[in-house]
Structure formats: C-alpha cells, structure tokens
Design brief:
- The chain is built from 15 helices and 4 strands.
- With about 425 residues, it is mainly alpha-helical.
- It has a single domain, classed as Up-down Bundle (Growth Hormone, Chain: A).
- It has a two-stranded antiparallel sheet with strand order 1-2. The chain has a two-stranded antiparallel sheet with strand order 3-4.
- A hairpin with a 2-residue loop joins strand 1 and strand 2.
- The two termini are about 20 Å apart.
Length: about 425
C-alpha cells in the first residue's frame, strides 16, 4: 500500500489507531477547557468585547504563524513536534490550574493561556495530519477524515453539558485539570510508536530563520504551480469568509427573527452538531465518490443550501430553520473530509506541513475579516441578507467549480515542477 510512493506498512492499524484514539481524549479535554473558560469570562465580565477578544487571541497563532509552523513540521521529526506541542499545552493548562487553585487568576492570564494553547495546536495539527498521510492507506484517508469530523461534532455536543456537570461537582481548577490528564493520555502512545518520517536532504537538516522563510515561499510556489489546488484553497478561504458570520449571527437570528430564547438557540446548535456527526459517520463508512473533489463540491453546495434555507425560514416556521441547520451540519464533513484526504494523499509528504499551514492560515484569516464586515452589513440591511447572499454564493461557487477542469480533475493534474520523492524512514 502506497501514498505518493511511500510504502504503508501492512499492520498500519496497530500503529495508527492508538495514536488517533489518544487524540480523541485530548480533543475532549480541550473542549471542556474552552467551555469552562468562556463561561468564566462571561460570568466575571459580562462583556461581549472580552469574549470577542478571547476569540481573536485564539485565532492569532493560526493566522500569523501557521505557514511557519508548517515549514518547521516539514523539517523536524513530526512525532517529536507532537510530543512537544501536547506537552507545552499541558504545562500551560497546569499553570492556569495553579492560578485558579491559589486564587491568583486575572483575565489577562486567560488570554495568554488561550494564545499559548492555540500556538501549540498550530504546530500539532499539521504534524498529525502529515503523519496520518504516511500511516493510513490512500483508500482509507477519506473515511478517517469523515470519522474525525464526526468525532469533532460529537465532542461539540458532549463537551458543554459534560463541562456544566463537572463544574457542578468539582472546583473550577479541578475541571480545567482534566485537560492536563487528557493531554498526557495523548502523549503516551507517541513515546512508544514510531511514525514514518520523510527523509530530507542533508542541506535541509539545519533550521534557521532564512531556511524556514525559504520553505514558506517554496510551499506557496508549490501550491501556485498546482492550479487546481491553488484555486481550491482560495475557494476554501472565501467560503470561510461567507460562512463564518452565520454561526456568530445565529443568536441574534433566534432572538430578533424567530423571537426565541436560549432553548431554541441550543436546539439549533445541537442539530448542527448531530448533522455533523451523521455526515461524518456516513463519510467514514462510505468513503465518498472515487472523484473526491466531486464529493467535496457536493458538500459545498449542500452547505450553501442549508444556510439559505435557514435564512429564508419565516419567523413562524422555526422548524424550517432547524432543517437548514441539519442540512448544513450534515454536509460539512462531506465538504471538508475529502479535501483533507486529497491533501494527505496527493501532496508530497515532505511538503504537507507547508501546504496545510498555508491553507489553515488563509482560512482562519478570513474569519475576523468577515465578522468585521458582516456586523455593519447586518445592521444596515438586516440579519437575513447575509444568509441569503452567503448561501446563494456558496452554492454557485460549488456548481461553478464542477465546471472547471483544473479543479474537478485536480487529483490527476499535479504541479508542473515536482519535489523529489524519497523513501520513508521510520523514526522511533
């Protein structure tokens, strides 16, 4: 079994499943901490500005540092990168636990911790995704991408009520300490399981600011030469621009349009999460069409349809808004999973950190920009308009890309200049 001429071991499940399974615990711990800290900031400040600042601080590392983190992931031992990233996140959280335990906490402490935790994730995510490409056979990448989407959706459903339950039973610092434990669980398999590592030429063993910058530029040039991939990444960033405000404006839609309360909002969020779980599980079992780009574009069209249905729902037809959120959630893994699998299977392993870092940076960059634009637009022309425009444009983009040969046949049209592919070595 091979991905990009790299041989996948026959017993790949024995190595990959423990690492993948341990990461689930880490995601659960992160979800608990996120819920607890947002609730704490809400209770202590009651300030929307503070909550917005917390979100912005958490986005900064992804926006500013993802391309550089991806370049470093391509040069360094990915297993070591994951250990250090998870360990740093655990130590940062432990520091927060001590501050809460000794009643020395300040709001700015939380902002610093959110930044550092996000920084660790900026390194961990491309390292894990790039490692997956060398541990899982190509035909199973879409399935695991779908399962990842389902798990994230499930954790989004489970983490808030579990966090609320733990906060009713434990001290606040004890709730946060759960994340330290889950991070340790995620690290343990990495000490005992080897991860395939692309062997770099001797000229790439030294890590200097100039070498990292060259790698970042090289990653951008690699994507730019691959026209279909370049178009798809730019499209993903623009879709983030169109869709990011839909979740932010949802509470206002509930109160101002559907005249609802927190229970209607919680129902919409739960339905969205349930849709993600079902869509992810379907992709995990099915794997998508042979043409993974076609699968992804069908998901994109479906997301646009769901957003449009939500925006068109009359005030007294709240059930239609629920249907819109269910469609949006269901189609999200169908859109995202195959794209992730394409990057893992078709981008050379020694380039994956850079490509994924660049993609993550561009997509995350769109979120604060779109929120800054969406707020005044909603004030001027109403909340629904953003859903109408966003949903319609997303559907049109999905249909339009189906007619672009460079995109629809992306997997068979590689960059004009290839990087040299060398055999894998297992690094213990």
């Amino acid at each position: 079994m091979q991905n990009n001429a790299y041989v996948i071991e026959a017993n790949w499940k024995r190595k990959f499943i423990p690492i993948w399974g341990a990461q689930i615990f880490s995601l659960l711990g992160s979800g608990l901490v996120q819920f607890a800290l947002v609730w704490y900031i809400t209770q202590q400040t009651g300030s929307a500005a503070m909550l917005a600042t917390a979100t912005f601080v958490g986005l900064l590392p992804d926006v500013l540092l993802s391309p550089f983190a991806g370049a470093l992931v391509d040069r360094l031992n990915r297993r070591v990168v994951m250990i250090i990233a998870d360990g740093a996140i655990a130590l940062t959280t432990l520091g927060l636990v001590l501050l809460f335990a000794f009643d020395r906490i300040e709001i700015w402490h939380i902002f610093v911790v959110l930044f550092l935790r996000s920084l660790g994730g900026t390194f961990h995510w491309p390292a894990m995704q790039a490692s997956t490409a060398l541990m899982v056979p190509d035909q199973h990448l879409s399935r695991f991408a779908g399962l990842n989407q389902a798990l994230r959706g499930g954790l989004n459903i489970v983490a808030p009520p579990l966090g609320a339950l733990l906060m009713s039973l434990l001290q606040f610092y004890q709730v946060i300490a759960v994340d330290v434990l889950t991070a340790v669980i995620a690290i343990i398999p990495l000490f005992f399981i080897s991860i395939p590592q692309p062997r770099q030429p001797d000229t790439q063993t030294r890590v200097t600011p100039s070498s990292v910058m060259r790698d970042v530029v090289g990653g951008f040039n690699y994507v730019k030469r691959w026209r279909g991939m370049f178009m798809l990444i730019l499209t993903a960033a623009f879709l983030n621009f169109l869709l990011a405000p839909s979740s932010t404006l949802m509470p206002l839609m509930v109160t101002q349009v559907f005249h609802g309360d927190v229970w209607k909002l919680s129902l919409l969020e739960s339905i969205l999460g349930i849709g993600i779980v079902i869509g992810g599980l379907l992709l995990g079992v099915w794997g998508g069409f042979k043409n993974r780009v076609a699968t992804s574009l069908i998901g994109v069209i479906g997301i646009g349809l769901g957003v449009l249905i939500f925006g068109l729902a009359p005030a007294n037809w709240f059930w239609l808004a629920v249907v819109g959120m269910a469609v949006t959630g269901f189609m999200s893994p169908i859109a995202n999973g195959p794209l992730q699998a394409i990057m893992q299977s078709k981008v050379e392993p020694e380039m994956q950190g850079r490509v994924m870092g660049l993609t993550n940076s561009l997509c995350m960059m769109m979120m604060p920009i779109s929120l800054l634009i969406a707020a005044p637009v909603a004030e001027l022309v109403g909340l629904r308009v953003w859903y109408w425009i966003g949903g319609t444009l997303v559907m049109l983009i999905g249909v339009g890309l189906c007619l672009v040969p460079e995109v629809i046949h992306l997997e068979s049209r590689k960059p004009s200049i290839q990087t040299q592919v060398v055999p894998t070595e297992n690094v213990a």
